[in-house]
Amino acid sequence: MNENAEDIEIDLVRLFKYLLSKYKAHLLLGIIFSVLLFSYKFYKFEYSDIPLEEINNLFTIQREVKLPNGQKKTEKTKVNYRLYKQNFLAQESEYNTALKNIEYQKQKISSEISDLENEEDIQKEYMKNSILYNMQDPASYLECDFLFIVSNKYPNKNSFSNYKNSTDNIKSPTDEGSFNSLVLDFAKELISSKDLIEKVSNHLNIPVKNSKKQITELTEFRKITNNTFVIEAKGNSPEVIAFLKEHIKDFYQRLNEAFKSEYQISFSQTYYGSINSSFIEKLKISEEDKLNSIINKIENSKNQISNLQEPAPIEEKLIDLGSYKIITYIKFALIGFVAGIFIGLSLFGCKYLFDGKLKDETYLQKLFSIKSLACIHDGSFIEKNHNEEKRLSQSIEYLCKDKTKLSIVSTLDLDEIYEPVKVIENTFYNTNTEVIVKKPFEIKEITGSDAVVIIEKLDSTNIKDAVSEINFLKEIECKIIGIAYA
Question: What pLDDT is attached to residue 156?
Fold first, then answer.
């Protein structure tokens, strides 16, 4: 006999099938423990002396803790519902404020981008339509200057009160320069007025959509003193200069008409000649730099928007106290159900492993080197295998064909091994072979037989009893032809 063969191998498949066959018991234990844990938590919530929202250690929040070395560390703390809710609402308010601030920054920068894009359009329109900027040969372009002098007809009389209230004057009403400077301000506005701009635009065929600069630079206003200023006319041909001269005369007539009762206004041509080439070069460089500056500002503003990072959203939602109770009840009920099933599996698993019953049909075969004839039930929880019944019948018929008396020996009662006994009896029905069923201690009947068949049952036969049975049969020198399992 091989001593190592006495170590029983655990068949995990059979163990699983066995545990599965006890599913009703597992479910019952699961329901019982589920009800117990649910009842426990329900009692703690509903009948506690402390209101649920004041019970400590129910909710987890994160708090910053200052360490002795000055650093800050985020720690999770268990608190009651009231503190949890306050903490959540504070985080939500902080998040919403940060989100609004980011949105405000985006809107502000977007507005700046819109203004810059408008400036870009104006600048590009100017550079496309400007006579001076697009000048190819500066030597062929002309310039003509007109000097305007403004003098008061009545120097001792404050006759300009119709044009400006005394409350707006910073200087004394007798200061002639103060009154004349107002004429200059009016002149500066008049030279760039809408109707005069349109007049030049239509005559010279210079489009004006967003920018008036391509027109105003042709008749540039330049202040000299409080009562003198210069209008500089620039053009790309004598014809244009001639037109601008007439345009400036029209301007003079309107200015003189506005102030003829109080001021003496005169003008004269002071220069006529080619435009300074350095002026054109500086103009082109200045306008290109201006356009590039606008484009760079737009790109920088777009980068600012892309670099704005929205605050990290709050991952959790505020838990309602009623919802928390329901979730907790369900959680404890599920934990109880799982715990009950686990306990059931553990109990039945231990029972299966340590009850000392025979589990493996090959165990006795290996231990005693005897034939395994058939296994009708591979466990009490597994359905009958009809093929094994045929195998048992054919094996017995072949092994006992010349026998007159066959003893069936078992440690179990007849009702537990009835099926294989019935198969053997049917096999030898109407034959000369007698079949008897005996216990191992019935020596006289057993030793008087020609052959012995051992019948046991998995999950029912005690291993020690079965081993003792076979050892005894071998000691009395019985001819064991095999073992079958009911």
Answer: 61
Sheet arrangement for strand 228-235: 219-225, 228-235, 142-152, 263-274
The structure tokens 């019952």 sit at 28
Buried b (16+ CB within 10 A) or exposed e, 359-390: bbbebbbbbbebebbbbbbbbeebeeeeebbe
Q: Which two three-digit tokens encode residue 19? A: 């545990």
Show Cβ contacts of residue 452 under 8 Å, excluding neighbours closer than 6 positions. Answer: 406, 407, 408, 409, 446, 473, 478, 479, 480, 481
Q: Is the dihedral of CA 150, 153, 157, 159 positive or negative?
A: negative
Residue 369 CA to residue 351 CA, distance in Å, equals 28
CA distance 476 to 118: 117
Residue 426 pLDDT > 60, yes or no? yes
Residue 373 neighbours by CB under 8 Å, 6+ apart: 391, 392, 395, 396, 453, 481, 482, 483, 484
Helix (H) or strand (E) run with residue 59 in it: strand 59-66
Q: Is 132 helix (H, G, I), strand (E, B) or coil?
A: coil
Q: 357-386: per-residue pLDDT in tens?
A: 888 888 888 899 999 999 998 877 778 888
Distance CA 74, CA 63 (A): 5
210/222 Cα distance (integer angstroms) = 23
In the three-class reduction of DSSP (H, G, I as helix; E, B as strand; rest coil), residue 367 is classed as: helix
Residue 121 corresponds to which tokens in the numbers above?
């359009």
Span 254-309, pLDDT tens digits: 999 999 888 999 999 999 998 887 888 899 999 999 999 999 999 999 999 999 98
User: Residue 140 has what DSSP assignment?
Assistant: G
Name the strand (E) or helix (H) holding 374: strand 372-375
- Strand-pairing partners, residue 451, are 406
Distance CA 196, CA 247 (A): 8
Residue pair 429/394 in contact (Cβ under 8 Å)? The answer is: no
Q: pTM of the prediction?
A: 0.53
CA angle (241, 259, 185) in 5-degree steps: 65
pLDDT of residue 300: 95
pLDDT in tens, 172-188: 333 444 556 789 999 99
In the predicted model, what is the mean pLDDT of the chain? 87
pLDDT (0 to 100) of residue 165 = 41
